[in-house]
Amino acid sequence: MAYLELKNVSKSFSNVTVVQDFNLEIEKGSLVSFLGPSGCGKTTTLRMIAGFEKLDSGTIKLGDREITTVPPNRRDIGMVFQAYALFPNMTVRENIAFGLRMKKAPKQEIEKRVNEVLDMVRLQDTAKRFPHQLSGGQQQRIALARALAVQPCVLLLDEPLSALDAEVRVVLRGEIRRIQSELAITTVYVTHDQEEALSISDKVVVMNKGIIVQVGTPEEIYRAPKTRFVATFIGTANQFYGEVSGKDTVTCKNIKLSVDGLKEFNEGQQVVVLVRPENIQVQSEHHNRRNWNAIPGTIETITFHGAVTRLGVNANGQRVVADITVGNTQPVSLNQTIWLSFPPDGCQVMAVTE
Amino acid sequence: MVMLKKFFRKISDWSGFFPFLIFCLAFEAVPILVLIRGSLIDRTTHQITLQHFLDLQGRSYINSFINSIKLSGLTAVIGVILGTIIGYAIYTWPSERTRKIFITLLNVTSNFAGAPLAFAFVVVLGMNGVITQFLLQWLNYELYPGFSIYSFYGLVLAYVYFQLPLMVLLILPAFAGIKKEWQESARSLGANSFHFWWRIGIPVLMPSLIAGFTLLFANAFGAYATAYTLLQSQFSLVTLKIGFLIAGEVRGDPGIGMAMAVLSLMIMGISIAAYQVATIRARRWSKS
Amino acid sequence: MRKKPNLIGSLPNKKSRPTGWQILLIAFFLFYMLLPIVSTYVFSVATRWDRTILPEGYTLEFYQRAIQTSYFTITLRNSFILSMATVLVSLILIVPTVYWVHTRLVGAKPLLDVLMILPFGIPTVVLALALVQVYNFPPIARSPFLLIGAVVVYSMPFMYRPVSNAVQAINIHTLTEACQSLGANVFQILSKVIIPNIMSGILSGSLLVFSTVFAEYTLTSLLVGARFKTFPLLLVEYTRINGNIAASFSVISFTIAWLASILILWAGSQGQRPSKNVTRS
To answer: Shortest CA distance to B269 belongs to which of B36, B25, B51?
Structure first.
């Protein structure tokens, strides 16, 4: 049952189309991320849901109410901004109470509710402080508390963690997800950080240049990207260009690769084979495994990422990225010749159209 | 040995500052100190006395202070209110090019003060002034003798002319400090425009408004040329009285004049200090 | 992509046209600011203008008479001399001091800031009174040199702020250290690197001081008076003698200030970096 529904929503700014024909249904209580590069229209769409931008065409429905022309202060939404928008002249308590005061709630109810949300974000002892006395992460949690205090129908977050340190970001996104699922509040979350989107969302909406490219669960988006853009925007993917040369073979330069999923393609068609670095096994010698592809190459770069070490390998003139984990017993060194092997079902084939 | 080296280093560091310090001493510090001393010393007995300050209780002196404070306070209040409203109108003007023209106009007109300004107001609102004629001939309204440009309220009009641009230029950057996100947050929480300004906008602007008031007050209090051109001896202001003393037009004990000057300095000092404090508070909020 | 202005007015109903209130307020503002100026200009070319809304006739006679008054050239010359001298003294006094404080005596910066605010707190008449009391001995008593000292004090903040802003904008410490690491001495650092980079501030400051001093009346009339008549003194004198000629003087004085303002704006824009565009998706 769609709780928040956008139909044919479009928006242009001085002749530049920023959002085009946006259609989406969001279930009640789910957390949906809008994910995409800068300029893809995700924030504009969010702001249209909030009411801060007018739609050029289309409709937005919340529950059974059409809110397309309703002003933002009557849409019953809660919003968290990228730049912490806490009112500097008010204490934390006064900030959180603001929405309730606008609703003219009785004093005791306001007291009670403010304490409730402060508990929720675990910042009970900051009630009397002013925003400039809090850290960035704390300010964002208070901003979240303030948005939730009025129990809105929808929670909208516009890149809420972009301005924070990396470790704070990881902790805070977990907190946001925890609170969101505890309250079962319908949430739209805008971000350009795919790790963020993948780790907390029920559904991810991948956007590029104003249109929706793919909608799916995080697993679907990662494992079954529908376009080259999604495949390369989410995670890393090696791209081998070539043409279909058989029932299950693609010839890339002079190498024949065994791949799955060639049913929709014709013989001789130009395609690109996508292989993720974690699907590639690195070996010092060529072990002939049935069906597996094996390419030789020279290690050009070794980058240590903690749990994973990323190798940049020169294979036949092309740079291939392969990940090896700590468990990998074989030592690697620069300029070493190694074999990269990957199975056919670790490949994804896509047509070259763009 | 190291201590000695450090000491010499410090002296040489400060020596570069000396020329400026000496200048300030010669033309600011020493004269002011002499002034303060002069106000506390009896000319004949050469003994410290508060008599000069006590003499300020005389009718004409009290009047001049009351007039100066009334004039400064009134023009400061008018300047702050008008300046803020007009400043907001300029700040939210949709065309950026036009906005820049307005700001240029502000900078240019802030030069037009003193005697030329006073004279211009006579041209406009004098007995035969442009507006005076206009009111008489088109609206059948006789401005004079009820109103005179050579009076307190005439002076107020002239003073507001140079107070206004000062306030607008001061408040414009303060508007920039009011973040769009605050307005949008407030709206998403159910507030309308009035609620926003009343609970958030104006409180955040308040330090700037206070800074504006104190600056405008000090500016008006110390003004001389405009008043001199318009009033001469018809009306007493502190600055005019001190000016007459220097010009030798008024016979009297210079001690009183110096007491007036010292009292003026104290009033100005309080204003400027308040201005500094308010400005620091204003900056603090624009950082968060 | 699109540059979003940080206007607090840009909410859902984005106005590309000003509201009625705005137009009303701005109209009032323009009227109030421009009427005195325009009236003065018109008055200076009017034959007679004391009975009608618009002048009865136009003439350039008053400008001719203005230029021919006995003190015209002398006072203009004196004003220029005073202004230039003040600019020079200010530059020599303030620019090196600002540089010095920013590089070798950073602890004195608060003191310098306070000293530069002080002139705002001293009314010109009070300064005049104090100076007259102290320097009442020849040769400095009532001399142009005393006046220059007074006017330099009066105009210090106007030179200081642009120069100080310019110095702070160029991260002077790093520049100086870079120069030193490349082998330059203090003089070379100043002349070849520092001064060219703060030139916009120096120009702004100089022009501000020039135009402020050119229009200065109080200190000049109280400290030297007729001994060194400047243009503003002549103007005030004629407000009591002949209004039309006084108007001509007003126009001349205002036009000079107006030109200086334009130059100030031009000078200020010379040193600006291109602003960044913030894009949003």
So the answer is: B36
Compute the CA torsion angle B182, B188, B194, B199 (nearest 10 deg). -50
On whether any CB of chain A is under 8 Å from the CB of C6, the answer is no
C8 touches chain A (CB under 8 A): no
Q: Which of B8, B32, B49 lies at the terminal end of a domain, its last residue?
A: B49
Predicted TM-score (pTM) of the model is: 0.79
Whether residues B184 and A52 touch (CB distance < 8 A) is answered with yes
Q: How many domains does chain B have?
A: 2
Mark whether B123 and B241 lie in a shared domain.
yes
* Closest chain C residue to the Cα of A192, Cα to Cα: C281
What's the average model confidence in pLDDT over C202-221? Answer: 89
Instruction: Clarify whether residues B101 and B238 are in a common domain.
Output: yes
Q: Which of A174, A205, A232 is the last residue of a domain?
A: A232
Domain edge (last residue) among A172, A206, A232? A232
CA distance B163 to chain A (A): 28
CA dihedral A107, A112, A114, A116 (to 10 degrees): -170
Burial B163-202 (b: 16+ CB within 10 A, else e): bbbbbbbbbbebbebbbbbbbbbbbbbbbeeebbbebbbe
Residue C272 in tokens: 């600006």
Rounded distance, CA C187 to CA B278, Å?
A: 40
Domain of residue B275: give its range.
53-287
How long is chain B? 288
Instruction: With beta carbons under 8 A apart, name residues in chain A contacting B195.
Output: 102
**Percentages (nearest 5) of helix, strand, coil residues in chain C:** 70, 0, 25
Neighbour order of strands in the sheet with A308-315: A281-283, A337-342, A293-304, A308-315, A318-325
Total number of domains in chain A: 2
Q: What pLDDT does C272 receive?
A: 52
Give the H/E segment covering residue C224: none
Find residue A243's DSSP bridge partners. Answer: A251, A270
Q: Look up the ipTM and state it.
A: 0.86
